[in-house]
From TrEMBL:
Secretion signal span: none
Entry protein name: Cellobiose transport system permease protein
Top-level taxon of the source organism: Bacteria
Membrane topology: Multi-pass membrane protein
CDD domains: TM_PBP2
Pfam families cross-referenced by the UniProt entry: BPD_transp_1
Keywords for this protein: Cell membrane, Membrane, Transmembrane, Transmembrane helix, Transport
InterPro entries according to UniProt: MetI-like, MetI-like_sf
Main localisation: membrane
Taxonomic placement: Bacteria, Bacillati, Actinomycetota, Actinomycetes, Kitasatosporales
UniProt source species: Streptomyces africanus
Protein family (similarity comment): Belongs to the binding-protein-dependent transport system permease family.
């Protein structure tokens, strides 16, 4: 009596998975290299001299002039003073955007009130308009209330972010069950308690993404601070860095050193909030599987 061969046949789909997986990995590696290259090139230029940058072909290796270029930046502009102003503006703006946008999005997504669809449609229209159209009305408003030249003039126009409200509205609409809110209403919870105790803990991934978005926008804003900040001691980092481009010859190695120093806080913010965004998204995927 012969024993039957119990070895399962190798399927064709399994043989095809490896080439497809290899192609996907190669594509991801290429995408990472393309994304990282501008940051690496900034470091290369910041560690070399302007003469090295102008060479043909350009120097692609790291140099030894980083500390010298950083010293030139610190001697040319008030880097740390403007960075402190930017940190204050970015942190306050981000906190207010998270609170106000999430509150408005929760009302739009889970409560029915007169004019809700009209107001939300108007919000979407404003989201499509270029931000430059609001510069003149904002400046007139800041002038009327006496805030021209003050840092708080940068936070007020960014409070109600149309994209942030839309983003959180879509997330809350699908991610916060109506049954939980109905149960909370039966227990006597009002609007703010439903928002604070039920909605906010469930939308942490969306809030993490919005925090990154709002912080980066506030940190990199240049046009509005350039217009409204008339006091040299209150300028933000991007306005201060623009002063490195003076004269007929620009020291690009010094400029890149300043850009590199200005980008480091953004890397830290992204690392902190991206971890919460990825952890929350992964947790939701595991629970939904």
């Amino acid at each position: 009596m012969t024993t039957a061969d119990t070895t399962p046949p190798v399927s064709g789909t399994r043989r095809l998975r490896r080439p497809r997986g290899l192609t996907a990995h190669l594509f991801l590696i290429l995408a990472v290299l393309v994304s990282v290259f501008p940051f690496v090139w900034t470091i290369v230029m910041a560690t070399n001299t302007t003469e090295d940058i102008y060479k043909s072909p350009p120097k692609l290796t790291f140099g030894s002039h980083l500390l010298e270029n950083i010293r030139h930046v610190l001697n040319t502009i008030d880097f740390f003073g403007s960075m402190l102003n930017t940190i204050v503006v970015a942190c306050v703006t981000t906190a207010l955007v998270l609170f106000i946008d999430s509150l408005a999005a929760f009302a739009f997504a889970k409560f029915d009130f007169p004019g809700r669809k009209l107001l939300f449609g108007t919000l979407l229209v404003f989201m499509m308009l270029p931000l430059q159209l609001a510069v003149l009305p904002q400046f007139i408003l800041m002038s009327e209330i006496g805030w021209v030249g003050m840092l708080k003039a940068l936070a007020l126009p960014a409070l109600a972010n149309a994209f942030g409200i839309f983003w959180l509205h879509q997330y809350i609409q699908n991610g916060v069950p109506d049954e939980l809110l109905d149960a909370a209403r039966i227990d006597g919870a009002g609007f703010f308690r439903q928002y604070w105790n039920i909605a906010l803990p469930m939308i942490k991934p969306a809030l993490s993404f919005l925090a990154i978005y709002a912080f980066v926008n506030a940190w990199n804003d240049y046009v509005w601070p350039l217009i409204v900040l008339t006091d040299p001691s209150h300028v933000t980092l991007q306005v201060e860095l623009a002063q490195l481009h003076v004269g007929h010859t620009t020291d690009y190695s010094m400029v890149m050193a300043g850009v590199l120093m200005a980008a480091l806080p953004l890397v830290v913010v992204f690392a902190v909030f991206a971890r919460g965004f990825i952890a929350g998204a992964t947790e939701g995927a595991v629970q939904g599987s």
